[in-house]
Amino acid sequence: MTYHPREGWAGEGQPRRRPVSRRQFLAGGATASLAAFLAACGSSSSSSQATTATTAPFKQLALPRPDNPVTWPLYTDNKAIASGLAPEKKATLKLYNWEAYINPKVLTNFEKKYNCKVELTTFNTMTEAIAKLESGQFNFDVFVPTVDVLGQLVAGQLIQPLNHSYITNIDQNWPKFTNPFYDQAWQYTVPYTIYTTGIAWRKDHISEGPETFANPWSFYWQSKYKGKVAILDDYREGISLGLLKNGITNLSTSDPAQLSLATNSLLELDSLVGLHIDNNDYTAIPNDQVWIHQAWSGDMAAAANYVPKGTPVDVVGYWFPTNNLGPVANDTMTVLKGAQNPVLAHLFINYLQDEATALTNIGFNGYMQPITTITPELLVQQGILPPSLIRTAVVQADFTNGLFEGQLAPATDARWQQDWLRVSSGV
User: Fold this and answer.
1) Any residues with CB less than 8 A from the CB of 22 and at least 6 apart, and which?
2) pTM assigned to the model
3) Residues 120-154, buried b or exposed e (16+ Cβ, 10 A)?
4) Are 240 and 383 within one domain?
5) Are 228 and 386 in contact (CB under 8 A)?
């Protein structure tokens, strides 16, 4: 039996667990979390003075978008560490990360470089992670959150501003990540992994790829593949597919008519093909369980690890639009406010931004990092990526033109969840 690299890494001979989607946590707690975040923003001035260096005071209802970038507030009682400090001696850096989302070799190499120890604690959902951080009972140095919860983390002062002088390797990243729309001037975050959401299919069973369709996103709607079609068990990805099938590219829409159109299309898909809904894209396609599956690029990049012996990886295809108009996303790295080793935390984040380290990491988990010199061609050349799956590699144009599933206002988020329940409850 094979496992995805992120699936419950527990060491040799230990049991593994299937992970939950990085966005799936929203179904259980996003509305409450966002409401708490907005309340915190509205009351933060009573405990500390919020300021920004380059913009007007933070707007309470701001939702980060590419066309609505946000500069998060800075607080007088939550300042960045001073420059020029030496790394903590004989320290244990505590990393709080998704399961199986970093190569253990990276941690070992960092320990040797800085004469320290690294202690990795993992989580399965962002709700779980934030609940532990808010309890105050856990002390970590580095945390790997999604973009969706940055406002909550900043308003709750769970993360601290970064001192950029320690993170010189940021220059190795794509320039846009020194001023991302979700954290202008990268005050609190550096990028970690990047990924797209596209279509995986079995080329040995389906001769025509998505690119042969007038609207490639309609590729799923083929009754002749009944019982062999699956989409991700993720309400944002699922509803977004329904939107794209109807030519709607606003993947954060609050328009009830558009959401109804998307939902009805997914219900039609279910009646047409007997839809599967799961997050097993990384095994279901390579193992020939389904022939068409909505998929994350990082999952399919590792397909060679899961095809049965004797089956060429070339039978697996991955499509993402050549005009880049598809779902894109990234995770981030932050330093927690209560970090006991803040200098080492900065240096660790810096270490992850280096090309050699990033290549070691990508070879383990399949998920790319936005390092300028790491091209699709380089990944193929180094044997990290099969030539046939080169489109799973994310390029800068994907993030320039790609479609972000942005944070939703509470009422809109509730509508998305309700619509997804209509689709998923009977599947």
Assistant:
1) 98, 126, 146, 331
2) 0.86
3) bebbbbbbebbeebeeeeeebbbbbbbbbbbbbbb
4) no
5) no
Helices (H), 305-374: 342-352, 355-365
Per residue in 209-235, pLDDT tens? 999 999 999 999 999 999 999 999 999
State whether 159 and 106 are in the same domain. Answer: yes
What DSSP character marks residue 402? Answer: -
The whole domain housing 40 covers 26-194+330-388
φ/ψ (deg, to 5) at 249: -105, 0
Asked whether 152 and 34 are in contact (CB, 8 A), the reply is: yes
Give yes or no for a contact between 233 and 275, defined as CB atoms under 8 angstroms apart.
Answer: no
Sequential DSSP letters for 353-367: TSHHHHHHHHHHH--
Write a three-state SS string for 43-69.
HHHHCCCEECCCCCCCCCCCCCECCEC
Total domains, the chain: 2
Strands 292-296 and 190-202: antiparallel
C-beta separation of 317 from 296 below 8 A:
no
Query: Which helix H or strand E contains 411, and what residues bound it?
Result: helix 410-424
CA–CA–CA angle 245, 247, 253 (5° rounding): 95
Reported as a single tens digit per residue, the pLDDT across 293-318 is 999 999 999 999 999 999 999 999 99
Q: Are residues 47 and 167 in the same domain?
A: yes
CATH number, domain at 340? 3.40.190.10
Task: Please return the burial class of 227, using the count of CB atoms within 10 Å of its CB with bins 0-12, 13-18 and 19+.
Answer: exposed
Helix (H, G, I), strand (E, B) or coil at 350: helix
Q: Which of 360, 387, 363 is nearest to 376 (CA)?
A: 387
Q: Which of 330, 322, 325, 303 is nearest to 391 (CA)?
A: 322
pLDDT over 70 (residue 26): no
Strand segments, DSSP code E, in 203-320 are: 229-231, 276-277, 292-296, 316-319
> How far is residue 7's CA from residue 366's CA, in Å, rounded to a whole number?
12
